[in-house]
Design a protein that fits this description.
Length: about 240
């Protein structure tokens, strides 16, 4: 499981204090899993069950004393409506993490007129559907949708796709370079200090496992390609 694997590679243990019982949960988790990094502990909708979020993005639920925990998503059927409460929490964390990325570390295609909505796209240079979506960026801009790119070379750090993204990022005109690269045109190989690896790791943390991965302003994740018109309707700009 992803959660178990993540425990093996983390080295610190920190958590924001949310209630008096945090200490018991922290103590039990620290004794059993000293390498796990906790981000927050909150009361869940089920009495006696607490939701714990790790800095890796994993969510789990624990007893009030931290002696027992389960992994998985918590759903609600209140009011006859099925709702994934854990995904709602992920959306908030996702939105916060995306907001924390400095604008200068993104490749941004902005509308000429008023910006009505913003999306962040984890993209790969060589992904066919990423290229298809990129061809529709002008249409999205025309609708008033700002498109910000973050790097997610699917084949990993150090791969050919990764190096292409680095070259595009290090170009004098990032937008022109990434457009050329997505059209299959060769761009000059360049190397400079860049955020590509950090963005790839951020994508993995946020649950990205394919490209394009579209993140809305509220943190909702749309995995895969969506036509511009359909995306515009989903964003409420059409």
């Amino acid at each position: 499981m992803k959660f178990i694997k993540s425990m093996l590679c983390l080295s610190l243990f920190t958590v924001s204090v949310a209630y008096a019982g945090d200490a018991e949960i922290i103590k039990e988790f620290n004794n059993a899993m000293p390498s796990l990094i906790l981000k927050s502990i909150e009361k869940s909708k089920i009495a006696g069950l607490y939701q714990v979020e790790a800095t890796s993005g994993e969510m789990l639920f624990t007893s009030s004393d931290g002696a027992y925990f389960i992994t998985g998503d918590l759903y609600s059927t209140v009011g006859g409506k099925l709702q994934n409460l854990t995904e709602k929490r992920r959306e908030k964390s996702r939105a916060d993490d995306i907001s924390a990325v400095n604008a200068k570390d993104k490749i941004i295609f902005s509308p000429k007129g008023k910006t009505k909505a913003k999306i962040t796209v984890f993209t790969d240079i060589d992904c066919g559907y990423c290229r298809k979506l990129h061809k529709e960026v002008p249409a999205l801009n025309k609708m008033g949708v700002e498109v910000s790119y973050l790097a997610f070379p699917r084949s990993g750090i150090g791969s050919e796709s990764y190096n292409k993204f680095v070259s595009a990022w290090c170009s004098d005109d990032k937008k022109k370079a990434i457009t050329m690269a997505k059209l299959g045109q060769k761009i000059p190989a360049k190397v400079c200090k860049n955020p590509i690896a950090d963005q790839y790791n951020l994508g993995r943390k946020l649950g990205v496992n394919g490209t394009p991965a579209i993140v809305l302003e509220d943190g909702r994740l749309i995995p895969g390609y969506m036509p511009a018109e359909k995306l515009g309707k989903a964003l409420g700009v059409l």
